[in-house]
Amino acid sequence: MTVSERGPRERMVFSAAQLIRRDGVSSAGMRDVAVHAQAPRGSLQHYFPGGKEQLVNEAVGWAGRYAGDRVARFVAALPEPKPSALFAEMVRQWTDEYRTTGFEGGCPVAAATVDCAESTESTREAASAAFTTWSGSVAQALAELGVPEERTEALATLMIGTLEGAILIARADRDVRALTTVSRELGPLLDAAVDSAG
Amino acid sequence: MTVSERGPRERMVFSAAQLIRRDGVSSAGMRDVAVHAQAPRGSLQHYFPGGKEQLVNEAVGWAGRYAGDRVARFVAALPEPKPSALFAEMVRQWTDEYRTTGFEGGCPVAAATVDCAESTESTREAASAAFTTWSGSVAQALAELGVPEERTEALATLMIGTLEGAILIARADRDVRALTTVSRELGPLLDAAVDSAG
DNA sequence: CTACTACTATGACGGCCGTCATGACCGGTG
DNA sequence: CACCGGTCATGACGGCCGTCATAGTAGTAG
Protein backbone atom coordinates (compact mmCIF):
# COMPACT_ATOMS: atom_id res chain seq x y z
CA MET A 1 0.00 0.00 0.00
CA THR A 2 2.86 2.36 0.69
CA VAL A 3 3.79 4.19 -2.45
CA SER A 4 6.98 5.90 -1.45
CA GLU A 5 9.13 2.77 -1.26
CA ARG A 6 11.64 1.86 -3.95
CA GLY A 7 12.30 3.56 -7.23
CA PRO A 8 9.73 5.18 -9.47
CA ARG A 9 9.81 2.30 -11.92
CA GLU A 10 8.75 -0.30 -9.39
CA ARG A 11 6.17 2.10 -8.02
CA MET A 12 4.61 2.40 -11.45
CA VAL A 13 4.44 -1.36 -11.93
CA PHE A 14 2.87 -1.69 -8.51
CA SER A 15 0.39 1.10 -9.18
CA ALA A 16 -0.52 -0.43 -12.53
CA ALA A 17 -1.37 -3.68 -10.79
CA GLN A 18 -3.48 -1.81 -8.27
CA LEU A 19 -5.46 0.06 -10.88
CA ILE A 20 -5.86 -2.98 -13.10
CA ARG A 21 -7.29 -5.09 -10.35
CA ARG A 22 -9.72 -2.34 -9.47
CA ASP A 23 -11.27 -1.38 -12.81
CA GLY A 24 -9.77 -3.69 -15.42
CA VAL A 25 -7.01 -3.13 -17.92
CA SER A 26 -8.74 -0.78 -20.34
CA SER A 27 -9.98 1.53 -17.63
CA ALA A 28 -6.55 1.85 -16.08
CA GLY A 29 -5.05 4.75 -17.99
CA MET A 30 -1.36 5.49 -18.27
CA ARG A 31 -1.90 8.95 -16.83
CA ASP A 32 -3.72 7.42 -13.88
CA VAL A 33 -0.80 5.11 -13.23
CA ALA A 34 1.65 8.00 -13.14
CA VAL A 35 -0.56 9.93 -10.74
CA HIS A 36 -1.14 6.92 -8.48
CA ALA A 37 2.58 6.15 -8.38
CA GLN A 38 3.40 9.81 -7.74
CA ALA A 39 5.74 9.51 -10.68
CA PRO A 40 6.25 11.93 -13.55
CA ARG A 41 4.24 11.11 -16.64
CA GLY A 42 7.31 11.47 -18.80
CA SER A 43 8.95 8.57 -17.03
CA LEU A 44 6.44 6.14 -18.44
CA GLN A 45 7.83 6.27 -21.94
CA HIS A 46 11.33 6.20 -20.52
CA TYR A 47 10.97 3.11 -18.37
CA PHE A 48 8.41 1.35 -20.53
CA PRO A 49 9.29 1.96 -24.16
CA GLY A 50 7.02 -0.96 -25.00
CA GLY A 51 4.08 1.17 -23.96
CA LYS A 52 1.07 0.09 -22.00
CA GLU A 53 1.42 -3.50 -23.11
CA GLN A 54 4.81 -3.78 -21.43
CA LEU A 55 3.59 -2.07 -18.27
CA VAL A 56 0.58 -4.37 -18.00
CA ASN A 57 2.68 -7.46 -18.59
CA GLU A 58 5.14 -6.47 -15.89
CA ALA A 59 2.29 -5.75 -13.50
CA VAL A 60 0.86 -9.20 -14.15
CA GLY A 61 4.27 -10.80 -13.65
CA TRP A 62 4.71 -8.91 -10.42
CA ALA A 63 1.34 -10.14 -9.18
CA GLY A 64 2.25 -13.74 -9.97
CA ARG A 65 5.52 -13.51 -8.09
CA TYR A 66 3.82 -11.78 -5.19
CA ALA A 67 1.20 -14.50 -4.89
CA GLY A 68 3.83 -17.22 -5.08
CA ASP A 69 6.01 -15.64 -2.41
CA ARG A 70 3.00 -15.17 -0.23
CA VAL A 71 2.15 -18.87 -0.38
CA ALA A 72 5.71 -19.82 0.48
CA ARG A 73 5.57 -17.59 3.53
CA PHE A 74 2.17 -18.94 4.54
CA VAL A 75 3.28 -22.55 4.57
CA ALA A 76 6.26 -21.74 6.76
CA ALA A 77 4.05 -20.15 9.38
CA LEU A 78 1.06 -22.46 9.53
CA PRO A 79 -0.09 -23.30 13.05
CA GLU A 80 -1.34 -26.66 11.82
CA PRO A 81 0.56 -28.01 8.81
CA LYS A 82 -2.45 -29.20 6.83
CA PRO A 83 -3.43 -28.37 3.22
CA SER A 84 -6.77 -27.05 4.41
CA ALA A 85 -4.96 -24.59 6.65
CA LEU A 86 -2.93 -23.32 3.72
CA PHE A 87 -6.05 -22.82 1.63
CA ALA A 88 -7.78 -21.14 4.55
CA GLU A 89 -4.85 -18.74 4.82
CA MET A 90 -4.95 -17.96 1.10
CA VAL A 91 -8.64 -17.23 1.39
CA ARG A 92 -8.19 -15.22 4.55
CA GLN A 93 -5.90 -12.81 2.79
CA TRP A 94 -8.90 -11.80 0.71
CA THR A 95 -11.54 -11.84 3.38
CA ASP A 96 -9.31 -9.66 5.54
CA GLU A 97 -8.84 -7.16 2.75
CA TYR A 98 -12.52 -7.08 1.88
CA ARG A 99 -13.59 -6.68 5.48
CA THR A 100 -11.15 -3.89 6.25
CA THR A 101 -10.55 -2.04 2.98
CA GLY A 102 -13.74 -2.87 1.13
CA PHE A 103 -14.38 -4.70 -2.11
CA GLU A 104 -12.39 -2.35 -4.29
CA GLY A 105 -10.20 -4.77 -6.16
CA GLY A 106 -9.97 -8.30 -7.47
CA CYS A 107 -7.06 -10.29 -8.78
CA PRO A 108 -4.98 -8.43 -11.38
CA VAL A 109 -4.15 -11.64 -13.22
CA ALA A 110 -7.81 -12.44 -13.61
CA ALA A 111 -8.47 -8.92 -14.88
CA ALA A 112 -5.69 -9.19 -17.42
CA THR A 113 -7.00 -12.53 -18.60
CA VAL A 114 -10.54 -11.26 -19.01
CA ASP A 115 -9.52 -8.09 -20.84
CA CYS A 116 -6.53 -9.20 -22.90
CA ALA A 117 -6.59 -12.96 -23.43
CA GLU A 118 -7.98 -12.61 -26.91
CA SER A 119 -6.65 -9.22 -27.95
CA THR A 120 -3.09 -9.12 -26.65
CA GLU A 121 -1.13 -12.33 -26.97
CA SER A 122 1.84 -11.22 -24.86
CA THR A 123 -0.42 -10.32 -21.96
CA ARG A 124 -2.20 -13.66 -22.16
CA GLU A 125 1.22 -15.32 -21.93
CA ALA A 126 2.10 -13.15 -18.96
CA ALA A 127 -1.11 -14.19 -17.23
CA SER A 128 -0.48 -17.83 -17.99
CA ALA A 129 3.04 -17.52 -16.59
CA ALA A 130 1.70 -15.82 -13.48
CA PHE A 131 -0.75 -18.65 -12.88
CA THR A 132 2.07 -21.14 -13.42
CA THR A 133 4.33 -19.40 -10.94
CA TRP A 134 1.59 -19.21 -8.36
CA SER A 135 0.50 -22.78 -8.96
CA GLY A 136 4.06 -24.07 -8.70
CA SER A 137 4.45 -22.41 -5.33
CA VAL A 138 1.21 -23.95 -4.09
CA ALA A 139 2.17 -27.39 -5.41
CA GLN A 140 5.48 -27.27 -3.62
CA ALA A 141 3.77 -26.22 -0.43
CA LEU A 142 1.37 -29.13 -0.73
CA ALA A 143 4.28 -31.50 -1.17
CA GLU A 144 5.82 -30.17 2.01
CA LEU A 145 2.50 -30.75 3.75
CA GLY A 146 2.52 -34.41 2.81
CA VAL A 147 0.53 -34.53 -0.40
CA PRO A 148 1.87 -37.18 -2.80
CA GLU A 149 3.79 -35.68 -5.70
CA GLU A 150 1.42 -36.99 -8.35
CA ARG A 151 -1.47 -35.00 -6.91
CA THR A 152 0.12 -31.70 -5.94
CA GLU A 153 -0.29 -30.04 -9.33
CA ALA A 154 -3.92 -30.99 -9.75
CA LEU A 155 -4.82 -29.83 -6.25
CA ALA A 156 -2.91 -26.58 -6.74
CA THR A 157 -4.94 -25.89 -9.86
CA LEU A 158 -8.11 -26.71 -7.97
CA MET A 159 -7.20 -24.39 -5.11
CA ILE A 160 -6.26 -21.44 -7.28
CA GLY A 161 -9.21 -21.89 -9.59
CA THR A 162 -11.65 -22.10 -6.72
CA LEU A 163 -10.10 -19.09 -5.02
CA GLU A 164 -10.28 -16.99 -8.19
CA GLY A 165 -13.90 -17.87 -8.76
CA ALA A 166 -14.83 -17.15 -5.18
CA ILE A 167 -13.12 -13.77 -5.41
CA LEU A 168 -15.28 -12.95 -8.41
CA ILE A 169 -18.52 -13.92 -6.68
CA ALA A 170 -17.57 -12.18 -3.46
CA ARG A 171 -16.83 -8.96 -5.28
CA ALA A 172 -20.07 -9.12 -7.23
CA ASP A 173 -22.03 -9.78 -4.04
CA ARG A 174 -19.98 -7.40 -1.93
CA ASP A 175 -20.04 -10.25 0.56
CA VAL A 176 -17.23 -12.54 1.67
CA ARG A 177 -19.60 -15.48 2.01
CA ALA A 178 -18.49 -17.15 -1.20
CA LEU A 179 -14.90 -17.07 0.05
CA THR A 180 -15.65 -18.53 3.45
CA THR A 181 -17.89 -21.14 1.86
CA VAL A 182 -15.30 -22.52 -0.54
CA SER A 183 -12.69 -22.53 2.20
CA ARG A 184 -14.94 -24.59 4.44
CA GLU A 185 -16.15 -26.95 1.71
CA LEU A 186 -12.85 -27.64 0.04
CA GLY A 187 -10.84 -28.14 3.21
CA PRO A 188 -11.72 -31.79 3.92
CA LEU A 189 -10.97 -32.82 0.33
CA LEU A 190 -7.54 -31.24 0.52
CA ASP A 191 -6.64 -32.86 3.82
CA ALA A 192 -7.84 -36.22 2.55
CA ALA A 193 -5.06 -36.12 -0.04
CA VAL A 194 -2.31 -36.17 2.57
CA ASP A 195 -0.31 -39.34 2.36
CA SER A 196 -1.30 -41.24 5.48
CA ALA A 197 2.05 -42.97 5.45
CA GLY A 198 3.72 -39.57 6.01
CA MET B 1 -24.36 -18.30 -32.61
CA THR B 2 -27.12 -17.60 -35.11
CA VAL B 3 -27.70 -13.92 -35.35
CA SER B 4 -30.81 -13.74 -37.46
CA GLU B 5 -33.21 -15.13 -34.87
CA ARG B 6 -35.63 -12.93 -32.96
CA GLY B 7 -35.95 -9.19 -33.01
CA PRO B 8 -33.13 -6.69 -33.25
CA ARG B 9 -33.35 -5.85 -29.57
CA GLU B 10 -32.65 -9.38 -28.40
CA ARG B 11 -29.95 -9.72 -31.00
CA MET B 12 -28.19 -6.68 -29.61
CA VAL B 13 -28.33 -7.99 -26.05
CA PHE B 14 -26.98 -11.32 -27.24
CA SER B 15 -24.23 -9.67 -29.27
CA ALA B 16 -23.27 -7.48 -26.34
CA ALA B 17 -22.81 -10.58 -24.20
CA GLN B 18 -20.68 -12.16 -26.91
CA LEU B 19 -18.42 -9.15 -27.26
CA ILE B 20 -18.17 -8.60 -23.52
CA ARG B 21 -17.08 -12.13 -22.85
CA ARG B 22 -14.44 -11.86 -25.55
CA ASP B 23 -12.67 -8.59 -24.78
CA GLY B 24 -14.20 -7.22 -21.62
CA VAL B 25 -16.77 -4.51 -21.12
CA SER B 26 -14.72 -1.43 -21.99
CA SER B 27 -13.42 -2.89 -25.22
CA ALA B 28 -16.89 -3.82 -26.40
CA GLY B 29 -18.02 -0.66 -28.16
CA MET B 30 -21.61 0.24 -28.89
CA ARG B 31 -20.83 0.48 -32.59
CA ASP B 32 -19.32 -3.00 -32.48
CA VAL B 33 -22.47 -4.36 -30.88
CA ALA B 34 -24.65 -2.90 -33.62
CA VAL B 35 -22.42 -4.36 -36.32
CA HIS B 36 -22.22 -7.77 -34.66
CA ALA B 37 -25.99 -7.88 -34.23
CA GLN B 38 -26.52 -6.71 -37.80
CA ALA B 39 -28.70 -4.03 -36.32
CA PRO B 40 -28.84 -0.35 -37.13
CA ARG B 41 -26.77 1.83 -34.87
CA GLY B 42 -29.69 4.17 -34.41
CA SER B 43 -31.67 1.43 -32.72
CA LEU B 44 -29.30 1.37 -29.78
CA GLN B 45 -30.51 4.66 -28.39
CA HIS B 46 -34.06 3.67 -29.13
CA TYR B 47 -34.09 0.31 -27.37
CA PHE B 48 -31.57 1.21 -24.68
CA PRO B 49 -32.20 4.79 -23.61
CA GLY B 50 -30.15 4.01 -20.52
CA GLY B 51 -27.10 3.80 -22.74
CA LYS B 52 -24.32 1.30 -22.51
CA GLU B 53 -24.92 0.69 -18.84
CA GLN B 54 -28.40 -0.63 -19.56
CA LEU B 55 -27.21 -2.76 -22.44
CA VAL B 56 -24.43 -4.32 -20.38
CA ASN B 57 -26.76 -5.00 -17.48
CA GLU B 58 -29.26 -6.73 -19.74
CA ALA B 59 -26.51 -8.79 -21.32
CA VAL B 60 -25.35 -9.90 -17.89
CA GLY B 61 -28.89 -10.77 -16.88
CA TRP B 62 -29.36 -12.73 -20.07
CA ALA B 63 -26.18 -14.69 -19.36
CA GLY B 64 -27.34 -15.54 -15.85
CA ARG B 65 -30.69 -16.81 -17.09
CA TYR B 66 -29.01 -18.74 -19.87
CA ALA B 67 -26.65 -20.48 -17.46
CA GLY B 68 -29.50 -21.30 -15.09
CA ASP B 69 -31.68 -22.77 -17.83
CA ARG B 70 -28.77 -24.75 -19.09
CA VAL B 71 -28.23 -26.37 -15.70
CA ALA B 72 -31.91 -27.26 -15.44
CA ARG B 73 -31.75 -28.97 -18.81
CA PHE B 74 -28.53 -30.77 -17.88
CA VAL B 75 -29.96 -32.33 -14.76
CA ALA B 76 -32.96 -33.65 -16.64
CA ALA B 77 -30.77 -35.45 -19.14
CA LEU B 78 -28.02 -36.89 -16.99
CA PRO B 79 -27.14 -40.51 -17.80
CA GLU B 80 -26.13 -41.04 -14.19
CA PRO B 81 -27.96 -38.81 -11.70
CA LYS B 82 -24.98 -37.85 -9.58
CA PRO B 83 -23.74 -34.36 -8.62
CA SER B 84 -20.36 -35.12 -10.16
CA ALA B 85 -22.05 -35.84 -13.47
CA LEU B 86 -23.81 -32.48 -13.36
CA PHE B 87 -20.55 -30.68 -12.68
CA ALA B 88 -18.84 -32.65 -15.41
CA GLU B 89 -21.55 -31.56 -17.81
CA MET B 90 -21.19 -27.90 -16.79
CA VAL B 91 -17.46 -28.15 -17.39
CA ARG B 92 -17.91 -30.02 -20.63
CA GLN B 93 -19.87 -27.15 -22.09
CA TRP B 94 -16.68 -25.11 -21.86
CA THR B 95 -14.19 -27.75 -22.93
CA ASP B 96 -16.34 -28.46 -25.97
CA GLU B 97 -16.43 -24.82 -26.93
CA TYR B 98 -12.72 -24.34 -26.40
CA ARG B 99 -11.81 -27.44 -28.35
CA THR B 100 -14.02 -26.64 -31.31
CA THR B 101 -14.29 -22.85 -31.48
CA GLY B 102 -11.08 -21.86 -29.73
CA PHE B 103 -10.45 -19.88 -26.59
CA GLU B 104 -12.09 -16.69 -27.78
CA GLY B 105 -14.38 -15.93 -24.87
CA GLY B 106 -14.85 -16.37 -21.17
CA CYS B 107 -17.85 -15.85 -18.95
CA PRO B 108 -19.60 -12.51 -19.52
CA VAL B 109 -20.63 -12.27 -15.88
CA ALA B 110 -17.02 -12.61 -14.81
CA ALA B 111 -16.00 -9.94 -17.31
CA ALA B 112 -18.66 -7.56 -16.06
CA THR B 113 -17.58 -8.15 -12.48
CA VAL B 114 -13.92 -7.52 -13.23
CA ASP B 115 -14.56 -4.37 -15.25
CA CYS B 116 -17.51 -2.79 -13.48
CA ALA B 117 -17.77 -4.04 -9.89
CA GLU B 118 -16.15 -0.89 -8.54
CA SER B 119 -17.12 1.67 -11.14
CA THR B 120 -20.74 0.88 -12.00
CA GLU B 121 -22.95 -0.11 -9.13
CA SER B 122 -25.91 -1.23 -11.23
CA THR B 123 -23.75 -3.60 -13.25
CA ARG B 124 -22.28 -5.08 -10.10
CA GLU B 125 -25.81 -5.73 -8.91
CA ALA B 126 -26.67 -7.32 -12.24
CA ALA B 127 -23.66 -9.60 -11.95
CA SER B 128 -24.56 -10.53 -8.41
CA ALA B 129 -28.11 -11.31 -9.51
CA ALA B 130 -26.79 -13.42 -12.38
CA PHE B 131 -24.65 -15.45 -10.01
CA THR B 132 -27.64 -15.84 -7.69
CA THR B 133 -29.88 -17.05 -10.50
CA TRP B 134 -27.28 -19.50 -11.71
CA SER B 135 -26.47 -20.69 -8.20
CA GLY B 136 -30.14 -21.18 -7.39
CA SER B 137 -30.57 -23.38 -10.41
CA VAL B 138 -27.55 -25.47 -9.44
CA ALA B 139 -28.73 -25.75 -5.84
CA GLN B 140 -32.13 -27.01 -6.94
CA ALA B 141 -30.50 -29.51 -9.25
CA LEU B 142 -28.35 -30.76 -6.40
CA ALA B 143 -31.44 -31.20 -4.25
CA GLU B 144 -33.02 -33.28 -6.97
CA LEU B 145 -29.88 -35.37 -7.07
CA GLY B 146 -30.16 -36.21 -3.40
CA VAL B 147 -28.02 -33.59 -1.70
CA PRO B 148 -29.46 -32.53 1.67
CA GLU B 149 -31.06 -29.10 1.57
CA GLU B 150 -28.68 -27.56 4.06
CA ARG B 151 -25.72 -28.19 1.79
CA THR B 152 -27.06 -27.43 -1.67
CA GLU B 153 -26.32 -23.70 -1.55
CA ALA B 154 -22.77 -24.08 -0.34
CA LEU B 155 -21.96 -26.74 -2.91
CA ALA B 156 -23.55 -24.67 -5.68
CA THR B 157 -21.30 -21.77 -4.74
CA LEU B 158 -18.32 -24.10 -4.72
CA MET B 159 -19.17 -25.51 -8.13
CA ILE B 160 -19.73 -22.16 -9.81
CA GLY B 161 -16.72 -20.58 -8.20
CA THR B 162 -14.46 -23.43 -9.19
CA LEU B 163 -15.83 -23.44 -12.72
CA GLU B 164 -15.29 -19.70 -13.12
CA GLY B 165 -11.73 -19.90 -11.89
CA ALA B 166 -10.94 -22.85 -14.11
CA ILE B 167 -12.32 -20.95 -17.11
CA LEU B 168 -9.94 -18.11 -16.33
CA ILE B 169 -6.90 -20.38 -16.09
CA ALA B 170 -7.85 -22.36 -19.17
CA ARG B 171 -8.21 -19.22 -21.21
CA ALA B 172 -4.89 -17.83 -20.02
CA ASP B 173 -3.18 -21.14 -20.78
CA ARG B 174 -5.13 -21.78 -23.97
CA ASP B 175 -5.44 -25.26 -22.57
CA VAL B 176 -8.50 -27.03 -21.21
CA ARG B 177 -6.43 -28.89 -18.64
CA ALA B 178 -7.52 -26.69 -15.73
CA LEU B 179 -11.14 -27.45 -16.57
CA THR B 180 -10.70 -31.20 -16.80
CA THR B 181 -8.63 -31.17 -13.63
CA VAL B 182 -11.20 -29.43 -11.46
CA SER B 183 -13.94 -31.64 -12.84
CA ARG B 184 -12.02 -34.76 -11.90
CA GLU B 185 -10.86 -33.51 -8.50
CA LEU B 186 -14.13 -32.04 -7.30
CA GLY B 187 -16.35 -34.92 -8.42
CA PRO B 188 -15.84 -37.26 -5.46
CA LEU B 189 -16.47 -34.49 -2.95
CA LEU B 190 -19.77 -33.63 -4.62
CA ASP B 191 -20.98 -37.21 -4.74
CA ALA B 192 -20.02 -37.72 -1.10
CA ALA B 193 -22.61 -35.12 -0.17
CA VAL B 194 -25.50 -37.21 -1.46
CA ASP B 195 -27.76 -38.29 1.35
CA SER B 196 -27.09 -41.99 1.65
CA ALA B 197 -30.57 -42.46 3.05
CA GLY B 198 -32.01 -41.22 -0.27
C1' DC C 1 34.49 24.00 -18.97
C1' DT C 2 32.20 20.57 -22.23
C1' DA C 3 29.81 16.39 -23.27
C1' DC C 4 27.02 12.90 -22.40
C1' DT C 5 23.54 10.16 -20.20
C1' DA C 6 19.48 9.61 -17.33
C1' DC C 7 15.45 11.41 -16.28
C1' DT C 8 11.61 14.83 -16.35
C1' DA C 9 8.20 17.93 -18.39
C1' DT C 10 4.60 19.36 -21.61
C1' DG C 11 1.93 19.98 -25.48
C1' DA C 12 0.10 18.06 -29.60
C1' DC C 13 -1.84 14.38 -32.65
C1' DG C 14 -4.88 10.96 -34.31
C1' DG C 15 -8.24 7.76 -32.97
C1' DC C 16 -11.96 5.78 -30.70
C1' DC C 17 -15.61 6.27 -27.54
C1' DG C 18 -20.64 7.15 -25.79
C1' DT C 19 -23.99 10.29 -26.57
C1' DC C 20 -26.97 13.45 -28.79
C1' DA C 21 -29.60 16.12 -32.49
C1' DT C 22 -31.83 15.85 -36.43
C1' DG C 23 -34.39 13.95 -39.92
C1' DA C 24 -36.08 10.27 -42.94
C1' DC C 25 -38.89 6.20 -43.60
C1' DC C 26 -43.15 3.48 -43.06
C1' DG C 27 -47.10 1.07 -41.39
C1' DG C 28 -51.45 1.89 -39.52
C1' DT C 29 -55.31 4.89 -37.89
C1' DG C 30 -58.40 8.94 -38.03
C1' DC D 1 -55.72 12.24 -47.64
C1' DA D 2 -53.22 13.77 -43.15
C1' DC D 3 -51.16 12.31 -39.07
C1' DC D 4 -48.18 9.93 -35.94
C1' DG D 5 -45.57 6.83 -33.29
C1' DG D 6 -42.08 3.22 -33.83
C1' DT D 7 -37.91 2.46 -36.18
C1' DC D 8 -33.79 3.52 -38.65
C1' DA D 9 -29.92 6.58 -40.40
C1' DT D 10 -26.19 9.81 -40.02
C1' DG D 11 -23.25 13.36 -38.76
C1' DA D 12 -21.42 16.05 -35.07
C1' DC D 13 -19.65 16.96 -30.35
C1' DG D 14 -16.82 16.65 -26.40
C1' DG D 15 -13.82 13.77 -23.93
C1' DC D 16 -10.44 10.50 -22.94
C1' DC D 17 -6.90 7.56 -24.54
C1' DG D 18 -1.96 5.93 -25.87
C1' DT D 19 1.67 7.69 -28.16
C1' DC D 20 5.00 10.79 -29.88
C1' DA D 21 8.04 15.01 -30.46
C1' DT D 22 10.45 18.25 -28.35
C1' DA D 23 12.75 20.51 -24.91
C1' DG D 24 14.33 21.00 -20.45
C1' DT D 25 17.10 19.70 -16.15
C1' DA D 26 20.31 17.30 -13.21
C1' DG D 27 24.51 14.81 -12.36
C1' DT D 28 28.69 13.02 -13.65
C1' DA D 29 32.83 11.79 -16.34
C1' DG D 30 36.49 13.61 -19.26
Can you summarize this structure?
The structure is a homodimer of 198-residue chains. Chain A is mostly helical and 198 residues long.
Mind explaining what this structure looks like?
Two copies of one chain form a homodimer. By secondary structure, the first copy, chain A, is an all-alpha fold. Chain A has one domain: Tetracycline Repressor, domain 2, CATH 1.10.357. The first copy, chain A, contains nine helices and no strands. In chain A, helix 8 runs antiparallel to helix 9. The first copy, chain A, is elongated. The N and C termini of chain A lie far apart (40 Å). The mean pLDDT of chain A is 94. Chains A and B meet through helix 6, helix 7, helix 8 and helix 9 of A and helix 6, helix 7, helix 8 and helix 9 of B. The structure holds a DNA duplex (30 and 30 nucleotides).
Features:
homodimer; 198 residues; mainly alpha; Tetracycline Repressor, domain 2; elongated; DNA-binding
Largest sheet of chain A: none
Strand content of chain A: under 5%
Unreliable stretches of chain A (pLDDT < 50, length at least 5) are none
Count of DSSP strands of chain A: 0
Name of the CATH homologous superfamily of chain A: Tetracycline Repressor, domain 2
The secondary-structure element order of chain A is: HHHHHHHHH
Overall pLDDT score of chain A: 94
- Count of discrete domains of chain A: 1
What coarse outline of chain A follows from CA principal-axis ratios?
Answer: elongated
Q: What's the assembly state of these chains? A: homodimer
Number of continuous helical runs of chain A: 9
| Rg on CA atoms of chain A, Å | 18 Å
Structural class of chain A: mainly alpha
Query: What distance separates the N and C termini of chain A?
Result: 40 Å
> From the coordinates shown, what is the CATH architecture of chain A?
Orthogonal Bundle
Organism (chains A, B): Streptomyces abyssalis
Protein name (chains A, B): TetR family transcriptional regulator
GO molecular function, one term (chains A, B): DNA binding
Keywords (chains A, B): DNA-binding, Transcription, Transcription regulation
